[in-house]
Amino acid sequence: MFALPDHHLVTLRGRDAAAFAQAQFMSDVAALADGDWQWSGWLMPKGRVIALFALLRVDAETIALVLHDADPAQFVAQLQRFVFRSKVAIETGALEVGGAFEAHLAASGSRAAMATDGFAFDFGGDGGARTLWAGPVLEAVEDGEARARWAAFDLTHGLPRLDESQIEKWTPQQLSLDRLRAYSVKKGCYPGQEIVARTHFLGQAKRGLVLFECDAPLEAGQQVMDGDRALGTIASAVTSSGQHSALAVLPLDASTAAAAVDGHPLRPLPLRDGLAR
């Protein structure tokens, strides 16, 4: 197992933990049984993504979030402002997060494996098996290449890794998060729900993710060009084993035949399936 220091565990505890998560996050938390998890996120009122995470219902009074890339202290501080009279405590613990490119004996699909000292998640997809462990991963090694491979796996399966420059910039539809079943248009209100639902039901989603590879390193925020015309923007990028890949937000009907970044041609690739939960 190798360490994933860019992943963090946040826990919601208390009588109102599940109800609070249902009211704040974009997935249908109420549909989860104890021990099940789903992809989810937190949106600003204008429908832009603040953070993405795996959300686990441990039990009726405990919700665990595994944040990807977001600052846990800042996330907790922002979320704490909406607690009001809800009986819920939001905390970051001492538990660490680690990963392994192998299957877990008890975690499968949306069913997590829960132990007294942590949780195991099946993060695998069509690209192979993966297990994420949140707990006292005392034997996890520091392995930068393994972390890059992990991030590349995320990107190739359509899970964007948003650095600070991309926070509050994209809607769930623009990030094609429907592929991961990460948001709901049918449950009750949550921040940004009106924007998400209106975009869905009026058929106004005009942009989505495209996976590219390139011979040169790519960075989030770079413009994807077609000659002198801007097509879209790189939302997430990674280099693993010398391979440069990125997820870009482009018009759904855009031709990518001549797509390039800083003069470097981009080669579109199909997104892999199997990561939806």
UniProtKB/TrEMBL annotation:
Lineage top rank: taxon: Bacteria
InterPro entries in alphabetical order: YgfZ/GCV_T_CS (IPR017703), YgfZ/GcvT (IPR045179)
NCBIfam families found in the cross-reference section: ygfZ_signature
Entry protein name: YgfZ/GcvT domain-containing protein
Lineage: Bacteria, Pseudomonadati, Pseudomonadota, Gammaproteobacteria, Lysobacterales
